[in-house]
């Protein structure tokens, strides 16, 4: 009957919808609390120069740590915080923490050492984004050459005037810009012409089948060569195997980042890791080739 159907309907839909929006509300309020309780921390993943095997910097990656929930990865809270605008305050905290670390590290690591920060589309739409960043740079006396800003390729889709203005301002201040996740669906080579990027980060989806799948390998190497001919530096993301590492090195890719080199680490872990390897990674020749 209609009554039963209605009841079933009610039973089936309402609790679900409720729990969906309730969950979002819950995470939003937990995020607000996380901001005021400083529950965020930064992990750093090394960037390895493929020509010299030297560690030339790292990427700063946010982690949310809470006693009850443990670690919540960024993909579980960054999109929501972009929607509700909390990302602006979170981004401020990230920048503060990263700058404090950059200053500490620049005391004992080399000139060219650099740390990359991820900035979301929502942050870049703020009219005062560059002013606030500049204030933080002054506050910590960070060298502009020691930082780099990563923006995801998807962001450029919306093509907002404010975002474009901010990118141009950043670049005119001498801050290097990376195009993150290059190749994740919406790539347009015209972005490379239109915006002031100096680095292209090849998304890890490209490397998944490299080097065994011929087409994937051809695609990756073509992008590396194309980027180079346009004057961009290339960073390969998600390097998980020695074969991928060797492939990228042979193709002339500039920098590698991925679990094969190291996972993202806390400040303390990163420092210990650097001390242990002396800033250089030794990679023994791969013996797989000789077995073929
Ligand atoms: P992303 O900027 O593309 O960062 C690279 C992601 O790949 C990181 O995930 C990293 O841990 C992961 N990764 C690194 N090497 C490997 C590998 O060899 N294999 C695999 N499978 N994964 C690898 P994570 O830390 O979970 O961050 C996810 C995304 O969240 C980032 O993607 C970035 O878009 C965003 N994000 C992270 N930190 C921040 C932040 O401080 N602010 C903003 N706005 N977004 C952030
Ligand atoms: Mg990134
Ligand atoms: Mg990426
Ligand atoms: Mg990504």
Average pLDDT, rounded to a whole number, is: 88
Enumerate the strands of the largest sheet in spatial order, edge to edge or round the barrel: 1-2-4-5-6-7-8-9
**Relative strand content:** 15-25%
Please state the structural category.
alpha/beta
Shape category: globular
Radius of gyration: 22 Å
Termini gap: 70 Å
Bound molecules: ligand C2E, magnesium ion
User: What's the order of the H and E elements?
Assistant: HEEEHHEHHEHEHEHHEHEHH
Number of helices: 12
Number of E strands = 9
Helix content: 40-55%
- Uncertain segments are 1-9
What characterizes the major β-sheet? 8 strands, mixed, barrel
What does this structure look like?
The protein is of the alpha/beta class. Helix content is 48%, strand content 18%. The chain is built from twelve helices and nine strands. It has an eight-stranded mixed barrel, surrounded by four helices. Strand 2 (55-66) and strand 3 (70-72) form a beta hairpin. One magnesium ion (MG) binds at residues 59, 118, 150, 180.
């Amino acid at each position: 009957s209609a009554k039963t159907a209605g009841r079933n309907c009610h039973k089936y839909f309402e609790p679900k919808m409720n729990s969906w929006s309730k969950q979002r509300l819950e995470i939003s309020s937990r995020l607000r609390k996380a901001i005021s309780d400083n529950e965020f921390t930064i992990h750093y993943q090394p960037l390895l120069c493929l020509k010299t095997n030297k560690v030339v910097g790292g990427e700063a990656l946010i982690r949310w740590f809470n006693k009850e929930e443990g670690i919540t990865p960024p993909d579980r809270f960054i999109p929501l915080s972009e929607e509700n605008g909390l990302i602006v305050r979170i981004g401020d905290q990230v920048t503060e923490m990263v700058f404090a670390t950059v200053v500490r590290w620049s005391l004992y690591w080399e000139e060219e050492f650099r740390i990359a920060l991820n900035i979301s589309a929502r942050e870049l739409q703020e009219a005062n984004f560059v002013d606030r960043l500049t204030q933080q740079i002054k506050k910590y006396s960070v060298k502009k050459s020691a930082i780099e800003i990563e923006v995801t390729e998807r962001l450029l889709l919306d093509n907002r005037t404010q975002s474009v203005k901010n990118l141009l301002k950043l670049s005119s201040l001498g801050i290097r810009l990376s195009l993150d996740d290059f190749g994740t669906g919406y790539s347009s080579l015209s972005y490379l012409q239109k915006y002031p990027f100096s680095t292209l980060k090849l998304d890890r989806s490209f490397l998944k089948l490299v080097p065994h799948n011929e087409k994937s390998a051809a695609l990756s190497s073509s992008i590396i060569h194309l980027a180079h001919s346009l004057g961009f530096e290339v960073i390969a993301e998600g390097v998980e195997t020695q074969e991928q590492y060797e492939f990228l090195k042979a193709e002339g890719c500039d920098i590698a980042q991925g679990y094969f080199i190291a996972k993202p680490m806390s400040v303390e872990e990163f420092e210990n890791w650097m001390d242990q390897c002396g800033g250089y990674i030794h990679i023994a020749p791969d013996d797989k080739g000789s077995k073929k």
